[in-house]
Write a structure and sequence with these properties.
The protein is mostly helical. It is built from five helices and no strands.
Length: 159
């Protein structure tokens, strides 16, 4: 298990050297990562080979570690030090609450009680929906950012 964390740590370290404008491209990048996670979970569901599942899990965990690190850094970069505990505490609590709720709905026999293969399909669909939301939002922000300089030029020319 610790090997997965070290692979994720190496991936985060390497990704730290990538220079990117997060305000412009961040959501599209998150959409791509969420889509890759959805594909890895789906492949783990439909492929019967345990070695392929292990490789997909390593990819899943590495991307997950990258996303958590990037999100934490981006949030921390825009906060005062006095707000760290409150913001990260609330984020962690909400994430745990949503994870528990989703697990109860999908796994508990009194609610849906789905088999493991259906659970994997639902989780893959969950990440696919997240990817679509990030993609639409990122596309919207990219279009707005690309049109903003044109609008500024038109406003400054007096037309």
């Amino acid at each position: 298990m610790s090997r997965f964390f070290s692979i994720g740590a190496v991936a985060v370290f390497i990704f730290g050297y990538v220079k990117i404008s997060w305000s412009t491209w961040g959501e599209l990048l998150l959409a791509g990562f969420a889509l890759i996670i959805a594909v890895t979970v789906y492949v783990m569901d439909v492929i019967g080979n345990i070695w392929v599942c292990y490789v997909m899990y390593i990819i899943f965990r590495s991307i997950y570690m990258i996303l958590i690190t990037i999100a934490t850094f981006q949030i921390a970069a825009n906060l005062n030090m006095e707000c760290y505990a409150l913001v990260f505490g609330v984020n962690t609590f909400i994430a745990l609450l949503l994870q528990t709720l989703m697990t109860v709905i999908v796994v508990d026999s009194s609610v849906l009680g789905l088999d493991i293969f259906t659970q994997f399909k639902i989780y893959a669909g969950y990440f696919a929906v997240i990817a679509i939301i990030f993609f639409v939002s990122g596309l919207y922000h990219c279009v707005n950012n690309c049109q903003q300089p044109k609008q500024d030029k038109l406003d400054s020319s007096g037309t």
